[in-house]
Fold these 3 entries.
Entry 1:
Amino acid sequence: MSGELILVVHPEAEILDTLSRSLHAAGYKVMGAATSESALESIEGTRFFQPDALLTPIDTDHTSGSPLVERFRADAHGAQVPIVVLANGNSDARRHALRLGLNHVIQPPYDDEEVVLSTRLALEHHRDERLLSGSLAQMSPVELLQSAETNRRSGTIMLRHRGRVGTVWMRDGQVIDAEVDDGRRREEAVYAMACWDEGTFEANFGPVSIPQRIQRSTTGLLLEAMRRRDEADRETAAANPPSAALDDPPPQPSRPMLALHRGLTLLNLATSYAGDHLEQALIRRRLEAIRNRLVRDHGLLAHFRVNAGAQVYLADGAPSPESIDPRRLVEAIATWLRELFHELNHALPGHFPLARLGAISEAIRGDLSSLGFYRDLGLGDEDLESEDLESENMEAEYMETDR
């Protein structure tokens, strides 16, 4: 018996009863409601009731699907609940659900086994997509925190670096606390972890309940961390001028290696941003479909893979980065991203302008520009400046509302 609580909503008593009995027989606890309004009355005003999944019809005339879906997506706790759409057999309902990023859809007649399997899949997929891990060499702490801020993520991020372990807690994209196991806490812990250039990270996204101990914005923390790092580098360079150095300075990464690293970073920043608006399973399918469509003209895309969390990585057995033409690589990745944002913006107009890629990748803008990513994306300086201004205005509005 799983014991997970499923909230089922349907206006027809017979269907509601059938759905409830099917789920209950599979080991789930079930709470039924005939309307969105009655379901809202059951959960409104209390923080103690939170279902593990929601099965509900949606209204194709309602921009968010229904008041109930809107309510669940309005706060950090509700947004973590997977939603299974009970379609009415009309293809418009399925298309509307997909446009909303609701990719778990059951068509009538509601088969008992399909209802249980779809619910179980939604729950398992939700558990998988909350977890994200990787190498700090592929996504640095600065890039990781910047992505979480851009996408207003909540959760716990654990970093490991040369025997040290650090933890960052975030709520709605804001770093609220941090610590390193050497005793550093709060802002000082963030400044230390921002400089870690090797190791691993594990992010578990979901609601966090610890109190906020850091008031400075995530962007402010990262800017201060980079300022401190630059200052330390200048002091080191002044104390060890080239003429007095015993060892040669470490070589800069080659252009092919830099193109691959920045390309993967840009791809994963883009998918993280998209994940704030759409289900990761939908993003993954779009990425793979576009890659398969483009691979004939851009053969390098055959060496990339997309995992269940919609994160892009280089497949085992791929050619050495040094053997890859960086110009062709940049062109292939830019084309992939351009097609992805075109399709997503068609589904959700106004949410995926190409210039948004410039805003979410500001920390590595210099490298992306010099490598030719922005040129191949069709972005000029005026596009990036316009998006920067819009992002600043949105941030100002958010800060004013928060006050």
Entry 2:
Amino acid sequence: MLQKKQIVKWTTISIVGALLGYAYYYFIGCKSGTCKITSNWFNSTAYGFIMGFLLGIPDFKKMKKQKTDSPQD
């Protein structure tokens, strides 16, 4: 089961990814429209969010170990 701290971390990293995706579109993005991701602000932001989401996924092996190491209630 995910703890509140892990969910907050996961959400924060996803939002930061979305902001970085938008920043990439705004400052560097492809203005000609030929780039699939960076030519549209929505695509770039969504891509950043997904990448942040994937990077923020907790390490399930570590969580499982912590769960087995913790004392039982």
Entry 3:
Amino acid sequence: MSHVYASLGDLKNMITDSGATSLGTTNDTLLLGVLASVSETIDDRMERSGFGSGFGPRTGTNRYNGSGGSTLRLRDDLLTVTSITIRPSTASATTSTPAADTDYYLLDGEDGYGPAPYRKILLHGQGTITAFGSGLRVTDVAGTWGFQNVTVTSSATTSEALDTSETGVDVSSGAAFSPGQTILIDTEQMYISSIATNTLTVVRAANGTTAATHSTSAAIAVYQYPAKVREVCLRLALKRWKARDAGADGTDEGSGIPGTPREGEDTIIRRSLGLLRLKEMV
């Protein structure tokens, strides 16, 4: 489950001035689907990642081809490295594991030394390992990927112990959360698909994290995304919802009035998020 950049409550509040609760829950599944679809569209148009990363963190291993050089272009946003494994050739069983600073430096999108996200790994030649392998899938980079890793700790906590498979998470206050949010308990990400009073229905082990046991009264953090990304997500979701009601094609934001076209989605994304687009880096 990829990150969704705005919550159901946020979208409902945009749809009606009366507040989210006035809309009821009949269309919750459809509205969440729109938010998820818009978030995927934003990731696709930004072209920052060749591996499915977005504006929230993903845990995983990216595998790269190599030509024997000293620089690896990541085609992804790297936040932290867990390990790097290099094979000299495709068929080789021999591996080496370069060490940070001793063998390599991480470079950002402008070939500087940070802060994250990083876009390149440079074997600087002063250590033992001085070159990447040559061939297909010869370098594995395990770590945390994505544009940023920002959370806000909720005032609510878990009100039960969790095993590794339970999808109904009892919390001290369900009102502190909204469907569409991705939360973090210990090191496991969970996506909230619905809420009934103080029980969150979640997708476990989201974004490459591992399902784990959690204790009662465990802290819960909520992922945050760049303000502009959240704003565009809500704007496009509202646009699609209005167009659905009006039977429009999405170019007029559901106004249904011929001859008065508005900004299309690509234009909105380009104008609002253009500085975050990295096609040349992917």
